Predict the structure of N-methyltryptophan oxidase.
Amino acid sequence: MESFEVAVVGMGALGSAAAYQLARRGAKVVAFEQYELGHVRGASHDTSRIVRTSYGATQYVRLAQSAYRDWADLEAESGERLLTITGGVIFLPIAGPYSASDFTSALEECDVPHELLSPSEVQERWPQFRVPEGVETVYTADTGIAHAARTVATLQMRARVHGADIRDRTQVEALIPDGDGVIVRTAGGDIRAGKVVVAADAWTNALLEPLGAAIPLDVMQEQVTYFQSASPEEHGSDRFPVWIWEDDECYYGFPTYGEPTIKAARDVSFNRMTPAERTYVPSPELTTQLGEFVHGLIPDAGPEMRTVTCQYALTPDRRFILSPLHEHPDIIVALAAGHGFKFTPAIGRILAELALDGESTDDISMFAAPAPAASR
Ligand SMILES: Cc1cc2nc3c(=O)[nH]c(=O)nc-3n(C[C@H](O)[C@H](O)[C@H](O)COP(=O)(O)OP(=O)(O)OC[C@H]3O[C@@H](n4cnc5c(N)ncnc54)[C@H](O)[C@@H]3O)c2cc1C
């Protein structure tokens, strides 16, 4: 049987980053992807993802600060430009469930420059927005955009350059830990690995359930819409920021990015579907709802051009899981709960550290796997 130090299951953003960081450290690594590389059935395709430090919890702010260093390292190592810094605003209705002070205090504690703005100050700086009274806005200059598909392709290419054995169109059917590592059963035969990194997002429990280690996941089809900006020059990243609206219903959007459109979406649509049930067809109700919201906030957004579907697998309270399983410590699980792309190169490094060193240089105490079902 072939034998490897580490096997990676899933070559979306997280698995590709893990394979890259493992191979770069000289580990003998094999990585499996059930579909073709770059497919659009998971969570890591399409153009843009928001990168930011502005979170309402210091642990995420610190991890984001760490990730910015890993992005710079990846860009330097690959020669690829993957991040575009645009500045970003988070709109927080005072009557809503989230408070601007959570964000400003976390940013202060982590020494991240930021501003707290009133609706009139937002209006003055970005007349493209219509922000109602009673909304506080947190601005951070370091917010920007990562190119999703290009980042994943770059990680996969660099992983191969460093010696990773990447096998696409090869599904992992089962994991059989036997105390001396794990037998990985694939459509292409069995291999043995000292450690296994499971970065399978919405498909994770298909492998963990048989091990009695399933993790509660709320899986749904998400969608994003590209609007044909009525005035693209006004929505360029030199004068229009990344924006997030944090309220009972959350929305987010981007300046123009590589085309004269502005992209926007609702975050957590509750359009529940397992991977097997996915339709890949956008919901007209969600498209209409989004259009109404966006045209209220950005009157010049223009008509819908196209809508792309994607997938969320949400852990309880959307906390990451970056941790070995209690029951099977040779199996390390990575779940980013629908907000992990900005951390991709850092999560890859952390997974490599967990697999090779047994611990991470980052504080990931908050991201432990849930205790075994019996003791929950
Ligand atoms: C619409 C949308 C917008 C988002 N916006 C942002 C944002 O602005 N900022 C941000 O930080 N994050 C954002 N995210 C979240 C981010 O994109 C995800 O957290 C991240 O892409 C998850 O990557 P992943 O590798 O875990 O999952 P995936 O990309 O889904 O990868 C999992 C892979 O595992 C493979 N796989 C599963 N089971 C097996 C098996 N048994 N054998 C072999 N292969 C298998 C799958 O085929 C898949 O390729 C967004 C996500 C969506 C959907």
Remarks:
- DSSP finds eight helices and 19 strands in the chain.
- The domain at 88-141+218-314 is CATH 3.30.9.10 (D-Amino Acid Oxidase; Chain A, domain 2).
